[in-house]
Amino acid sequence: MKNTITFGGISAQPGHKGTGWTPVPGTDLALPVTVINGEKEGKTVLITSAIHGCEYPSIEAVFELAEGLDPKEISGQIVIVNPVNVEAFINRRPYIVPADGKNLNRLFPPDPLGSPGDKLAYTLAEEFIKKADFHIDTHGGDIPETQPSYVYYPGISEDKEALAISEEAASYILHAKYMLKSRATNHAYTYSAMVGVPSLELELGECTRWSRQEVDDYIENILNILKFLKVYPGEAVKRPADQEITTITEGVYLDADYSGRWYPLVGRDDRIVKGQKIGYIKDLFGNVLVEYFAEYDAEILMVVATLAIKKGDPIIAYGR
Ligand SMILES: [Zn+2]
User: Fold this and answer.
1) Is the pLDDT of residue 97 over 90?
2) Which domains does the chain have, with CATH numbers?
3) Which of 35, 122, 137, 152 has CA atoms 20 to 30 A from the CA of 131?
4) Cα-based torsion angle of the residue sequence 261, 267, 272, 277 in order, rounded to the nearest 10 degrees
5) Separation of 236 CA from ligand 1 center, angstroms?
C-alpha cells in the first residue's frame, strides 16, 4: 500500500488528488500545485506550464490534465505546477515575471538570494524538479511569436543516462515538426537534466491563439510521454519513422539590437539560405537601424510578428 505523498507542502493520499498553493519564501508569489497520487507504485513526473504566462495551448492542456487525470489510473505520482508564473498569466505579460522583469526560463540554476523571479525558480527547483524522475515543461509561441511545433531535449549534462532517456522520450512526441537538441544550460528543463532528471520542453501553439485542436494535440503528446514512463495505462506510440520530422542540433536566437519597428522578411515555415536578408529594424522616422542576415542554411523556428519591437527582446530563431 502506498503512502500519502507531499510536494511543496501539498499532500495527497493514495488514489487521490491534492491541490493548493506553495509559497515562494521571501516574495508575495506562490505556485498553484496539483498532486496526483496514483494507487500503484511508479515514477514521479513533474509537469510545469506557464513559466511563460501566455503560451495558451500548453497552459489549457495542463489545466485539463490536472482536472481530468484519474488517480486510480496512475502508477506513481504526477505533480503539476500550472501556471508557474501566475502573475504573467493573469496580467497577460509575455516572457517575464512581472515582479522583476526577468525571463524565468533563463534563471537556472537559480539564485536563492536573488529577486522574486530567482526565488520562484529556486522554489520550483528545490520543491519540485529535484524530487521528480522526469520533468515535462510545456511552452509554445508567446504573445508576439509565430512558430511551428517542436520538442526540445537537453544536450548538456554530466548525467549521460538522463540525456539518453530525454532523447528517447522526445521520439514519442507525436505532434511536432522538429526535434531540437539544446545546448542551453539556463532553462528549467535543461537544469533538470543537469541535476539528473530527464526532461523535455514541448513547444506547440503561437501568438496568443489557442484552439481545441492544439489543446488536444498537446494532451496527446503529454499522455504518450506518461505512457512511455509507465505512469499512465496503455502502450506508448513511437513516432512513425516516415513521419516527417527534422532533428536540429544548433540554432541562432536573435534578439533586437534596437527598439523601434520590426520588419521580418521570412515566415515561420520558411527555409532560409546563408547570407539571406531575414529582417530589419527601423527607427520611428524611417531610418534603417540594423539588418539581419542568415549565418547558414537553416529552418525557421520562430519569427516575432509584431511591428513594435523592444531592444533585447527575441525577433527570430533558426536552426539546422
Ligand atoms: Zn515559453
Assistant:
1) yes
2) 5-228 (3.40.630.10), 251-319 (2.40.50.100)
3) 152
4) -20
5) 26
